[in-house]
Amino acid sequence: MAVFHVIISLVAKALFFLACLLLLLFLGYCLYIKYIHMKYDKIPGPPRSSFLMGHSLMLLRIVNSDRLVHEQFLEWAETYGSVYRLNGLHYVYLIVTCPKATKEILMSSKYLKDNFYKKIFHLFGERFVGNGLITAQNHELWYKQRRIMDPAFSSLYLRGLIGTFNERAEKLMDKLADAADNNTEANMLHLLNCVTLDVIAKAAFGADLDLLTNKSPIPKAIEACLKAIMNLVREPAFEFNPKNRQFIKEVRKACRLLRTTGAQWIQKRKTAMQNGEDVPKDILTQIIKTAATDENMTEEDEELMLDNVVTFFIAGQETTSGKLSFCIMELGRHPEILEKVRKEVDDVIGMKQDISYDDLGKLVYLSLVLKETLRIYPTAPGTSRQIEEDMVIDGVHIPGGISCIFDFYVTGRLERFFKDPLKFDPDRFHPDVTKPYYCHYPFSLGPRSCLGKNFAQMEAKVVMAKLLQRFDFSLVPGQTFDIQDTGSLRPKSGVICSIKHRK
User: Fold this and answer.
1) What percent of the chain stands above pLDDT 70?
2) Would you say residue 298 has pLDDT above 80?
3) Are 8 and 47 in contact (CB under 8 A)?
């Protein structure tokens, strides 16, 4: 019995010691947060809703209420100016809309991507996009990959892809013709998701998915991974919540599927090239050829190739389908703009089935329409950089060691940059109109700007030109024009349209 009391006494002392230690650690952490507040509180910003959590709980409530968090960022930008601060635990983030600072930071390789990009190296323990072009923080590692990838996205090389863009867009036209013949409504976002994924699979990797006809687990896998990213951003403890275990299993399975599929494509292509077989002159072939000239290729470099296959697969599909869907939505709401862009397509394309590369350069007003679409609806809504040294932004002193967020949604909708910003007006991008600098950059800026920009613009023009050439479409009444944030921005309604053949 005495031994039992001794054990109880020792356990109680140990628990007391542990409680004291945890209390001291907590107090120390609170002091550190107080130090962070004192260091950065001279930067303007909204009042914190919590000492510990900062603005996190406020933002979480916005997200959980199904509101768009970028709208809140826009409201705060209008209230607090071109640079303001947000807190979350001991982290501090800047939202920057100052054109001068945007130019200085994004146009320089000095400012590295911040730690957010580490979060999507893995998803719940499974390697996802790893150290690919979008996520690589180390400049030398990024530059090595970019040097390998650049030839695959040259304008000369992209010219050769026009046939693929036409072919896949024709499959969409066949699907829309069925909807017109059968008088059925078309969910444009779903159809465009299928066709843009088909395009990137075929043009980049020589794979025929044909998702408008066939079923595949790949779209669901992509959607699960994007949803996982958003959950991790919104809820840092998401992985440790027992109710999320089933979803986490699905995401791990999705990551494995995407990487296994990419590895099969790479290996199959390498084998064909080694055997001297004819292979498609696509992006995958170019990547493998260029990588083979590097004498210092390592096993990790092979993993990086796979990282970039997954990166292109996701980034090349989701953002373009969103842009096209928003474009159709706005044209459906503005018949006068629809008529003007349709006339241009008729004048340039006429009755031709195949659109040439030279035709794309003549579709000037369509280019303006797509630019205006991305101003109001930047499907990739932002990027971020790490500021390690002190600097001054628009007269505000910024101590180093802080993450800086550039929100494309916010800059595109600020009155001080764009008059009547919610008005859909493609003519604001006319070459003769004076435009603000470093305020509209939906593909980012500088050395880390989107490598696939020209690819995406060509694809979007081909799809839209064929749609305008062949069909009349109108928005089905009663649907919402709200925006959904799934990692990229997309129309919440799906853009449901009635389709008719043009007379």
Assistant:
1) 97
2) no
3) no
Residue 176: pLDDT over 90: yes
233 to 69, 120, 163, 226, 258: CA distances (angstroms) = 12, 10, 39, 11, 21
Q: CATH number of the domain that 423 lies in? A: 1.10.630.10
Q: Kindly report the three-state secondary structure assignment for every residue of 225-252.
A: HHHHHHHHHHCCCHHHCHHHHHHHHHHH
6 falls within a domain: no
- Owner of token pair 């959980």: 64
Cα 24 to Cα 474: distance, rounded to the nearest angstrom: 64
Number of domains in the chain: 1
- Positions at the binding site: 450
CA of 409: how far to CAs of 69, 70, 71, 77, in Å? 10, 7, 8, 11
CA quadruple 190, 123, 239, 484: dihedral, nearest 10: -30
Residue carrying the six token digits 């040097």: 147
**Domain annotation covers residue 100:** yes
- Please list the residues that pair with 499 across neighbouring strands: 473
For residues 52 and 32, the answer to whether their CB atoms sit within 8 Å is no
- Looking at residue 451, what is its pLDDT? 84
* Residue 165 · residue 462 · CB < 8 Å: yes
d(CA 213, CA 174): 11
**Of the ranges 123-137, 238-252, 266-280, 413-427, which is most confident?**
413-427
pTM over 0.70: yes
For residue 273, what are the CA distances in angstroms to 264, 266, 303?
Answer: 14, 11, 19
Rounded Cα distance between 472 and 366, Å, is: 16
pLDDT of residue 295: 63
Q: Helix, strand or coil for residue 54?
A: strand
pLDDT at 441 exceeding the cut of 80: yes
What secondary structure does DSSP assign to 329-363, as a single string?
A: HHHHH-HHHHHHHHHHHHHHHTT-SSPPHHHHHH-
> Binding site membership for heme: which residues?
450
- As a whole number, the mean pLDDT across the chain is 87
Please write the tens of the pLDDT for every residue from 313-344.
787 777 889 999 999 999 999 999 999 999 99
Alpha-carbon span 360 to 191, nearest angstrom: 22
Q: Is residue 14 part of a domain?
A: no
> Is residue 86 classed as helix, strand or coil in its secondary structure?
strand
The answer on pLDDT for 59 being more than 80 is yes
Q: Which domain holds residue 99?
A: 45-501
- 3-state SS, residue 110: coil
- Sequence-separated (6 or more) residues with CB below 8 Å from residue 153: 283, 451, 452, 454, 455
Residue 231 lies in a domain: yes
E strand or H helix at 126: strand 126-127
The answer for residues whose C-beta is within 8 angstroms of residue 444's C-beta and 6 or more apart is 106, 383, 406, 450
